[in-house]
């Protein structure tokens, strides 16, 4: 039967309605898996804001695990397995969140305090840089220790398209120090609460990260989730993957209030602008103050307070997919998250046990973490294609200088090595310098992996402060860390500062290393030693007494010479006193240093006179002299042009002499060289004529520079110049 | 004015039409950038297949550069800049190709021949494994050298969810050897042509990779592009990024025929099933034969023939986005590809210059390559979550054995180290063993980085074959490679085989290393030495003569003892003859080995008798004897339970004695130990009582095993057992 006239119009209207429904279905609900996150969250946000009562009825926010969005009915995390999309290939219809525009600057904030956290930050940042394709601005809230370390590190890292800003955590302390807190992260754990006020007022969005997270994906994908925020939402968080906030872990377990399982604050998307507008500061302080009337302290630091505020104002929060914060404490439900996802985005070692956490897949997570722990950070100095970013400070000059080198120059490799800016991580391990004493001396030396076994003996011989520069790869730095941790002798010492300079290039940058160790010495005097020497047990005390006695602190400009000896035996009885040493010398068990190979290096010390000396005596500089000396910390730096083997100490002693340092030999001081195989650099020096030619050229240039600086006074060094053979 | 009755029905119909249009617009054409790739490609494929003439008119296939699909009008690669989508965010509407199902097995084929390509394959595979989330099946078409290397490598790598199949390239040679070819890859470069017949007949799809590509993304994304193939397309390829096939590079440059710029075959998606059905074998042979009537040879190996076939049958090819094969030759147009893409998927070092190629961004590409070159391959032993895959052979037993270890056991670390399966890359560098001689001897030793400087001297002292095991990280293996390449002495030697065992664990697996070097020796006899010894210059000749003279090849089972001495000086004149050595010994410039520290290690050699000896003499085993010996290659292996320092050689000599090897001291043989600093292991042994306790426990267990094997005959070793001190 056909419809006509009015009925026909009615039919058309019915069809129209059907079509509208169809359109609605196709556009907004066609596939049960397809729903644009931002709209869905907007709707929930609006509803939730006005009616907080509606949320507790559904305590677990529906958090998708795979970064894709699901219908509200499908549970991901409350024990119910996720809805099977029935063979539907979800990726056919659900677009991923739009990535940020190609060169958009992404903002990241991290709170970091102390030596160990500073190392953690580096690993986090490496994982971030490995996957990132956008320029980044890192906002680092640090204590003085971390700032000192990270400032030098990023300055020398020179990663393109990374800006760094520092914020003084100590200035922020008063804002949170009134909160009693039991969490292992201490006061710094609370500092994320004050970011909206601490960060620049024009900063609208920031991703906040704990130092114990590791990225396995591009942070831009996380940044893109800001687009899902409704108009009011200001905090993006991943649900907690433990039962902590359910409050049933043990009898009388009373956690802070939270929505259902609560949220984990290891990874936060913050709309700072909205938080400021919403009066965040008053908001969290009010909530915290109120809860602290009945609760004695926070257990999980900032996280307790974030959760309490969210419980009260659920419209603030945008739940994020769980893969953006896979929490690897013991007994977490993280497996439910990652086992259904094909992909992991961020893992979070949110347990004080860290890599020793119990999880049946921990080996895999550990491997991802170790990947970045041991990753050569130099490789992250890569440009972003097509993003015009200002180069890191100094990078352009460096590029120009490198471009001017000529590959045909026999010294090409040496000059390239000299120009190399090595990443430097000062005080790599915890370090507590002793209180400053007016005559104190720091032993300064440098080493690489193959001399690590010298450290324990050195610690036994030198009870005073040390500043040691280590030339290591990122992976070796971790071996070094384990070496110190498993050594009772080394881990007992807190006055030894270890500075890691990361390896790059084929020649050992010996003088750059010495300069790093020297610059980090904190006492007024330094003993410039080498790692294969063991000083007399009494040397530390004797040097301090001598400095005092000689009144070096005053007008007197002097370098105190510590006579050097050598043994050829692996094991030998180290002499306790000068008399014992002289006996060994006479017996042929000891020699004066390089007696056979390079006597002129130490001849001016005048060992014959030293045998008899009762008081310090002055010696004169002579060609090729390279004694081990004690000097004020502000002494001239080593000349970085000397890399690898040869002339690196000789040039420094010339500088001291040119600057009119008296050379005073100490009658009771001595230090003894232990045997080792020749270094690779000395082997190259011996077998490679280019190496020797180049060293000659570098010496000439050094003398030219010397004449330029010191004028006619430098002439004596040039006339004393002998055909080169080979000091170290 | 309101419409009524019929007009109203008309209005409704008009509205209906409008709505239908709107629906159509939203669903099928809303955004000019939105077109489902598979549909578009299907349409093109169908058209192209029936009408080959339509393709040459548009010589450059439209290849999108960023992995997303564009309207047909937008050019990406023919000089015209890509169409700007007018601020439209493309990702809002264009879905990426559907990823393969979570645990789908992806098939990859690689042709690999020789030592250098085997190293390249490892880097490629590391990059592949780093990003992959699917199980993989690698089909390796190899010559005997590569098979030998890669079989051992993958066997010891034990990566979960990776299957390996080998195919004998030499058997495939006749199918391509008739083609004259000028490309540097040689005959193996042509072998990709025969994959459809060489690979198993039930294998339908495979991704074919050159050894010089590096992945920067998950290969599953590449696999997903199979879904874009039309019904007939069988070969997915990226357009060439050079002008080679345009034929205007120089006067009389006559390349093989190709569609426009042609395609690059460094990365290929092959539908093997369709190729077989289409008669691929006849197809390419016909084309090649015909072209070779006028062209003298292929210039670019398989690529010339692939392109000629495609020119003739353009319906075969599905062009792939350029980011899947960014070609880094000099003068390529690769920059146009990657500079507009935010992302790179695969880079291809398709120039004989490899990493020295000219490209203004080469530093960044190099960093990506170095990332995987130096990446610790052990970290890739990670499971795929939720993909049930059979574990690699031996993995389960290993897991069980490790699970049975007790952490409280003082030997826990030792037993863990013993059980560790180290990745082994045999013949890491090119190696040409000399023709087999009946009395030839290979010097067998092991070392780590800190002994690298010994190699040149060793080569000067030992002109015969050597088999050396090196204990290195992946990064150190590259340093080692550069060290050999820059040494004239080392790079001149082709009879020295270097086997890399990759580092894992904290103790030096000395006996596992020795066993690897021993197993790879190819001569009938081996000289079991240590890296810090230099043999007499005449030793190699003398040993061969002695073996012949003593008729060791026959019934006689003997170990020839090479007496060991030591010097304490860095530099010394190495004695040419026994008489000279005796003079130095008398002068106190040389000592018998470990004369001061551990005389019992070599006392049974009877140095007094050796002074006078004119002929080989037999000595008896005694406790702690650990001489350096020459034995047949099939001698007992070293006991791997001894790791780190202590008893590793002593136990081996006991085994020799238990198996009734005569111990014959050679009167003219000698070897001299050079000084070096104590190893980390010996330092730990000395300072750590647990270390010493454990060594005692391991010795007891060794003796128990000995009694089990040799019964009462082994009793003498137990009764001779002395309280342990410490041999190496």
Attribute tags:
9-stranded mixed beta sheet; 25 helices; elongated; Spore Coat Polysaccharide Biosynthesis Protein SpsA, Chain A; 23 strands; 2 domains; 728 residues; alpha/beta; homodimer; 7-stranded mixed beta sheet; 36% helix
Task: Please summarize what this structure is.
The structure is a homodimer of 728-residue chains. By secondary structure, the first copy, chain A, is α/β, with parallel strands linked by helices. Chain A is built from 25 helices and 23 strands.
Describe the structure.
Chain A has two domains: about 105-375, Spore Coat Polysaccharide Biosynthesis Protein SpsA, Chain A (Alpha-Beta Complex), CATH 3.90.550; about 425-720, Spore Coat Polysaccharide Biosynthesis Protein SpsA, Chain A (Alpha-Beta Complex), CATH 3.90.550.10. Chain A has 25 helices and 23 strands. Chain A is an alpha/beta fold and about 725 residues long. In chain A, helix 3 (about 115-130) packs parallel to helix 4. At the A-B interface, helix 1, helix 11, helix 12, helix 16 and helix 23 of A face helix 1, helix 11, helix 12 and helix 23 of B. Chains A, B: It is found in: Golgi apparatus membrane.
């Amino acid at each position: 039967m056909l419809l006509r006239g009015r009925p026909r119009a009615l039919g058309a209207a019915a069809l129209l309605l059907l079509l509208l429904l169809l359109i609605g279905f196709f556009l907004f609900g066609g596939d049960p898996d397809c729903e644009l996150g931002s709209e869905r969250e907007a709707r929930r946000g609006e509803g939730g804001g006005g009616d907080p009562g509606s949320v507790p009825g559904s305590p677990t926010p529906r958090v998708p695990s795979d970064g894709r969005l699901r219908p509200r009915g499908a549970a991901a995390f409350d024990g119910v397995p996720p809805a099977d999309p029935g063979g539907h290939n979800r990726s056919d219809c659900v677009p991923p969140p739009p990535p940020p525009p190609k060169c958009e600057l992404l903002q990241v904030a991290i709170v970091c305090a102390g030596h160990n956290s500073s190392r953690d930050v580096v690993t986090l940042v490496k994982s971030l840089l490995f996957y990132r394709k956008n320029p980044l601005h890192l906002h680092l809230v640090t204590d003085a220790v971390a700032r000192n370390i990270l400032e030098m590190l990023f300055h020398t890292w020179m990663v393109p398209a990374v800006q760094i800003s520092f914020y003084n955590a100590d200035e922020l302390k008063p804002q949170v120090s009134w909160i009693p807190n039991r969490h292992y992260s201490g006061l710094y754990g609370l500092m994320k609460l004050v970011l909206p006020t601490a960060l620049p007022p024009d900063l609208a969005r920031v991703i906040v990260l704990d130092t114990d997270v590791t990225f396995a994906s591009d942070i831009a994908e996380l940044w893109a989730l800001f687009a899902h925020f409704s108009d009011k939402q200001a905090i993006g968080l991943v649900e907690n993957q433990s039962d902590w906030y359910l409050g049933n872990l043990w009898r009388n377990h009373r956690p802070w209030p939270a929505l259902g399982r609560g949220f984990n604050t290891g990874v936060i998307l913050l709309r700072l602008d909205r938080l400021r507008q919403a009066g965040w500061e008053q908001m969290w302080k009010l909530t915290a103050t109120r809860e602290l009337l009945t609760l004695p302290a926070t257990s999980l630091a900032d996280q307790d307070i974030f959760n309490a505020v969210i419980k009260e104002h659920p419209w603030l929060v945008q739940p994020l997919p769980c893969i953006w914060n896979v929490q690897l404490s013991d007994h977490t439900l993280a497996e439910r998250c990652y086992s259904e996802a094909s992909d992991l985005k961020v893992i979070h070692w949110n347990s004080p046990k860290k890599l020793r956490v119990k999880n049946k897949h921990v080996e895999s997570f550990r491997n991802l973490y170790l990947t970045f722990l041991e990753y050569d950070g130099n490789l992250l100095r890569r440009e972003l294609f097509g993003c015009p970013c200002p180069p890191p400070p100094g990078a352009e000059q460096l590029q120009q200088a490198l471009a001017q080198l000529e590959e045909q120059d026999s010294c090409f490799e040496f000059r390239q090595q000299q120009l190399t800016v090595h990443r430097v991580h000062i005080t790599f391990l915890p370090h507590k310098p002793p209180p400053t004493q007016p005559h104190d001396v720091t032993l300064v030396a440098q080493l690489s992996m193959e001399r690590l076994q010298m450290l324990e003996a050195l610690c036994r011989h030198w009870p005073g402060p040390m500043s040691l520069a280590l030339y290591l790869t990122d992976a070796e730095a971790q071996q070094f860390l384990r070496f110190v941790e498993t050594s009772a002798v080394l881990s007992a010492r807190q006055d030894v500062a270890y500075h890691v300079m990361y390896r790059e290039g084929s020649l050992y940058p010996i003088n750059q290393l010495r300069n790093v160790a020297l610059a980090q010495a904190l006492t007024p005097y330094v003993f410039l030693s080498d790692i294969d020497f063991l000083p007399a047990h009494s040397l530390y005390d004797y040097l301090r007494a001598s400095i005092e006695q000689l009144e070096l602190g005053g007008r007197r400009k002097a370098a105190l010479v510590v006579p050097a000896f050598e043994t050829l035996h692996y094991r030998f009885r180290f002499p306790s006193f000068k008399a014992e040493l002289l006996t060994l010398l006479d017996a042929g068990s000891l020699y004066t240093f390089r007696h056979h190979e390079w006597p002129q290096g130490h001849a001016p010390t005048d060992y014959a006179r030293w045998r008899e000396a009762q008081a310090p005596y002055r010696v004169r500089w002579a060609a090729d002299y390279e004694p081990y000396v004690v000097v004020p910390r502000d002494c001239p730096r080593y000349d970085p042009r000397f890399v690898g083997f040869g002339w690196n100490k000789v040039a420094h002693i010339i500088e001291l002499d040119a600057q009119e340092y008296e050379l005073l030999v100490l009658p009771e001081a001595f230090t003894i060289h232990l045997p080792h195989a020749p270094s690779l650099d000395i082997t190259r020096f011996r077998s490679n004529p280019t190496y020797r030619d180049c060293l000659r050229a570098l010496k000439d240039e050094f003398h030219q520079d010397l004449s330029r600086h010191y004028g006619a006074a430098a002439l004596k060094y040039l006339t004393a110049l002998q055909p080169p053979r080979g000091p170290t």
